[in-house]
C-alpha cells in the first residue's frame, strides 16, 4: 500500500458513534478545497505518543510555537486513526466507519493529548455577507452566503498506521533555499523520535542524493540536529531538478524506506507525486509526505508558511532603503521588486510594515500604466504633492499585459 500525504489532505472521518457529535448541515458538506487524500487501508495500532512525549500538549502546538503554522505534515505519516481504532478507507470522503473502542485508551488522556478525527477547523469564519461583498457565493437555496469551508484539525491521534520500531524514514530538501528549512528538518526528526522512530536518514542535496554515490545519506538524530535551527540554509543541502524516477524509487526500496518526507516547492511536490505513483505501481508499503516550502505564503488553509516572516522582514528593509534614496533626490522615485510570481503576500505585508509606500502592484489586482487613472499619472501626482514616490512591485504583477512565453524550466516554472 502506498499513501501520499500533503498539507492539503484530510484525515479519516470515522467515529465509533456517529451520533455522538452533531454538526450543523454546512459542516457535513463535502470538503471543497483541492487536496490529496491518503489511500492507506491498514490495521491501526495504539500510539505511544503519551509515553514518549512526557507532556500533555500536541506536537502541532509545539510546531506552531517554533514555526508559525507549519501544519501537521510532520505527524501525518504516523498519525491518522480516530481514537476508537477503526480502520478506515480515507478515500471515502466524510463517511463514518464504525469501530470497536479500545479499552486501553483513557478518555481523559485522549482529551489532554490526542485530537479526535471529528475535530474540524473553519477556513472561512464569516457567517453572513452582503451580496456586494467579495467572496460571496450563491447557494442552492438562493441565498447569498460565505461558504463555510472546513478542514480536519491537525494533531496526534490515538491510533497510528505504522509501528514506529519498524519505520525507516528519509528527509530531503529540494529546490531553492528558504528561511526556516533547518527548523523544519529539526522538528521532523524530533517528532519522529517522540513516536519512537530511530531510523531516520537525511538525503543530501535534494533528489540528487539518491543517485550520487559521493553524497551518501546521513543518519539523523536529535543529538545531531539539535542546534541546526541556529544556522541558515539547509543542513542537508539542496539542488534543483530530479534524476530518473526509477533510480529514486530503486534507492528507496533498497534502503527499506517506508516513510519519505519531501520539503520543497511546486516542482518538488510534482516530483513527490511522481515518486508516490511509482511506489504505488510497485505495491510498496510507503508513505510520502509533502511539506510545502514557499515564502510566498500562497497556500490556502495554512495561516503562514515557514520563511514568510523572514521574507517580509528583509523586504521591509529594502523598501526603507529605497525610501531613503528617493527622499534624498529631487523628485525621487524608488522602485522595489519583490518575490511573488503569482501572489502578492510578501509585497503587501512588507508595504504595511514599512508604511513608506505610495504604489503597490501585485498579481492579484489588474491595473493600467497609462491613462487618467493609470499608474504613471498617479506617480506624477504623488511626486508633485510630496516630491517623492515609492513603488513596490511583486515580480508577477502585470503579467497579463505581456506576451507569455511557453518555456518552462526543469522545476516547472515559466510562462513569464
TrEMBL record:
<feature type="domain" description="Phosphofructokinase">
    <location>
        <begin position="169"/>
        <end position="398"/>
    </location>
</feature>
<comment type="function">
    <text>Catalyzes the phosphorylation of D-fructose 6-phosphate to fructose 1,6-bisphosphate by ATP, the first committing step of glycolysis.</text>
</comment>
<keyword id="KW-0021">Allosteric enzyme</keyword>
<keyword id="KW-0418">Kinase</keyword>
<dbReference type="InterPro" id="IPR050929">
    <property type="entry name" value="PFKA"/>
</dbReference>
<keyword id="KW-0479">Metal-binding</keyword>
<dbReference type="InterPro" id="IPR000023">
    <property type="entry name" value="Phosphofructokinase_dom"/>
</dbReference>
<protein>
    <recommendedName>
        <fullName>Phosphofructokinase domain-containing protein</fullName>
    </recommendedName>
</protein>
<keyword id="KW-0547">Nucleotide-binding</keyword>
<dbReference type="GO" id="GO:0005524">
    <property type="term" value="F:ATP binding"/>
</dbReference>
<dbReference type="InterPro" id="IPR022953">
    <property type="entry name" value="ATP_PFK"/>
</dbReference>
<dbReference type="Pfam" id="PF00365">
    <property type="entry name" value="PFK"/>
</dbReference>
<dbReference type="GO" id="GO:0003872">
    <property type="term" value="F:6-phosphofructokinase activity"/>
</dbReference>
<keyword id="KW-0460">Magnesium</keyword>
<keyword id="KW-0808">Transferase</keyword>
<keyword id="KW-0067">ATP-binding</keyword>
<keyword id="KW-0324">Glycolysis</keyword>
<dbReference type="GO" id="GO:0046872">
    <property type="term" value="F:metal ion binding"/>
</dbReference>
<dbReference type="InterPro" id="IPR035966">
    <property type="entry name" value="PKF_sf"/>
</dbReference>
<dbReference type="GO" id="GO:0005737">
    <property type="term" value="C:cytoplasm"/>
</dbReference>
<dbReference type="GO" id="GO:0006002">
    <property type="term" value="P:fructose 6-phosphate metabolic process"/>
</dbReference>
Amino acid at each position: 500500500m502506498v499513501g501520499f500525504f500533503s498539507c492539503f489532505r484530510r484525515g479519516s472521518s470515522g467515529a465509533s458513534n456517529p451520533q455522538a457529535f452533531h454538526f450543523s448541515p454546512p459542516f457535513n458538506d463535502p470538503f471543497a478545497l483541492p487536496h490529496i487524500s491518503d489511500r492507506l487501508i491498514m490495521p491501526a495500532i495504539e500510539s505511544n505518543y503519551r509515553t514518549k512525549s512526557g507532556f500533555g500538549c500536541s506536537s502541532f502546538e509545539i510546531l506552531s510555537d517554533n514555526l508559525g503554522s507549519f501544519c501537521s505534515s510532520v505527524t501525518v505519516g504516523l498519525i491518522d486513526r480516530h481514537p476508537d481504532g477503526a480502520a478506515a478507507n480515507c478515500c471515502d470522503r466524510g463517511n463514518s466507519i464504525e469501530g470497536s473502542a479500545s479499552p486501553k485508551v483513557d478518555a481523559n488522556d485522549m482529551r489532554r493529548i490526542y485530537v479526535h478525527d471529528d475535530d474540524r477547523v473553519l477556513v472561512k469564519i464569516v457567517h453572513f455577507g452582503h451580496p456586494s461583498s467579495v467572496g460571496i457565493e450563491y447557494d442552492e437555496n438562493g441565498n447569498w452566503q460565505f461558504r463555510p469551508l472546513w478542514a480536519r484539525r491537525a494533531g496526534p491521534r490515538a491510533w497510528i498506521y505504522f509501528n514506529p520500531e519498524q519505520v525507516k524514514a528519509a528527509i530531503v530538501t529540494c529546490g531553492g533555499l528558504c528561511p526556516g528549512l533547518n527548523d523544519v528538518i529539526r522538528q521532523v526528526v524530533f517528532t519522529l523520535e517522540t513516536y519512537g522512530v530511530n531510523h531516520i536518514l537525511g538525503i543530501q542535496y535534494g533528489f540528487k542524493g539518491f543517485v550520487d554515490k559521493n553524497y551518501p545519506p546521513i543518519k539523523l538524530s536529535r543529538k545531531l540536529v539539535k542546534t541546526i535551527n541556529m544556522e541558515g540554509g539547509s543542513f542537508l543541502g539542496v539542488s534543483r531538478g530530479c534524476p530518473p524516477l526509477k533510480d529514486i524509487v530503486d534507492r528507496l526500496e533498497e534502503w527499506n524506506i517506508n516513510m519519505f518526507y519531501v520539503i520543497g516547492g511546486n516542482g518538488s511536490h510534482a516530483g513527490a507525486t511522481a515518486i508516490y505513483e511509482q511506489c504505488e505501481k510497485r505495491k510498496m508499503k510507503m508513505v510520502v509526505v509533502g511539506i510545502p516550502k514557499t515564502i510566498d505564503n500562497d497556500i490556502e488553509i495554512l495561516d503562514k508558511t515557514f520563511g514568510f516572516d523572514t521574507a517580509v522582514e528583509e523586504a521591509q528593509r529594502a523598501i526603507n532603503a529605497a525610501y531613503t534614496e528617493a527622499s534624498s533626490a529631487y523628485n525621487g522615485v524608488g522602485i522595489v521588486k519583490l518575490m511573488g510570481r503569482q501572489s502578492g503576500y510578501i509585497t503587501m505585508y512588507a508595504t504595511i510594515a514599512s508604511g513608506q509606500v505610495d504604489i503597490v502592484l501585485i498579481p492579484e489586482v489588474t491595473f493600467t500604466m497609462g491613462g487618467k487613472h493609470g499608474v504613471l499619472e498617479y506617480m506624477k501626482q504623488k511626486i508633485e504633492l510630496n516630491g517623492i514616490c515609492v513603488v513596490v512591485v511583486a515580480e508577477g504583477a502585470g503579467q497579463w499585459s505581456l506576451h507569455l512565453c511557453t518555456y518552462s524550466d526543469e522545476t516547472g516554472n515559466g510562462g513569464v
